[in-house]
Amino acid sequence: MDRLEKIYRLHTLLRARRYPVSFAVMQETLGCSRATLRRLMTTLRDHFQAPLIYDRKAGGYRYDTGADECPFELPGLWFSADELHALLAAQQWLESIGHGLLGEQIAPLRQRIEALIARASGAAPTALGRIRILAQGRRRLRLPAFSSVAAGVLGRRKLRIVYHGRARDATTEREISPQRLTHYRDNWYLDAWCHRAQALRVFAVDRIERVAVLDEAAADLPDAELDAHLASAYGIFAGPATAWAVLRFTAARARWVAEECWHPEQESRWLDDGRYELRLPYGDTRELCTDILKYGADVEVIAPPALRKAVADALRAAHEIYAQARDLSL
């Protein structure tokens, strides 16, 4: 830890504590000698003009600021080495989920962070490559459309969009009041009030072909209503949950599934034979079926009957495809 970082940590300690800090606590926190700590305190007072005083009654040090004064802050932007590394990791994550959206805007900040890290911890700029975020199932995103959608969400303005839905393979023009942008499974979705349908809808941002930000203010829906409609059902398919799925996983697969969160309201239990039972609410079978099918023979749908039939039909259809392929090869 270099001298500047020790000064920053000393300042953070004094700012964070509600009561005066003893000399012993400061020395232990910084891990330095008494002489070093005294030099740091002198630098904090003389160079940075910190109002550092000794409170004899409390037996510790504190900043002498009145109730009506702003708390003392060090000039400039200060980070510890750990905070810089965390900030850089967060930047990598933002860059990953943003599909390059933030690269140009935060490039100067990224360069500054790298320089500060090199000075604070001696890490080489190439260390950045040791942080990896791998996307799965990411779809191509139209950057101008995303920027306009984000502007509508944050600026609370209505949007006019030309949307091509995959399910019906149809293109429609709609006027919507954007509510939330959601990043889900490496893709972006827009929760919005559709004025044509007079209902809440979820739009895949990558399927928005054109978008215009209107001057008219967007209609704001209460958070409770948004949560009830958009967050209660399984996955991205909106609408209130209408049923509970009961899934049982084999003992071999249970060790992995038991650590996963499929839904915020899920319930689970271990069975006596080592299997794992998972219960979760859903309102649409499509995405849930996809997640169930990827576990193959390691999961069984116990209830409800309609979901069990849907998964069984999908497995039967897949079996017929492979059976036909086997017959053709004979």
From TrEMBL:
<feature type="domain" description="WCX">
    <location>
        <begin position="244"/>
        <end position="318"/>
    </location>
</feature>
<dbReference type="InterPro" id="IPR057727">
    <property type="entry name" value="WCX_dom"/>
</dbReference>
<dbReference type="InterPro" id="IPR036388">
    <property type="entry name" value="WH-like_DNA-bd_sf"/>
</dbReference>
<protein>
    <recommendedName>
        <fullName>Transcriptional regulator</fullName>
    </recommendedName>
</protein>
<dbReference type="InterPro" id="IPR051534">
    <property type="entry name" value="CBASS_pafABC_assoc_protein"/>
</dbReference>
<dbReference type="Pfam" id="PF13280">
    <property type="entry name" value="WYL"/>
</dbReference>
<dbReference type="InterPro" id="IPR026881">
    <property type="entry name" value="WYL_dom"/>
</dbReference>
<dbReference type="Pfam" id="PF25583">
    <property type="entry name" value="WCX"/>
</dbReference>
<feature type="domain" description="WYL">
    <location>
        <begin position="145"/>
        <end position="213"/>
    </location>
</feature>
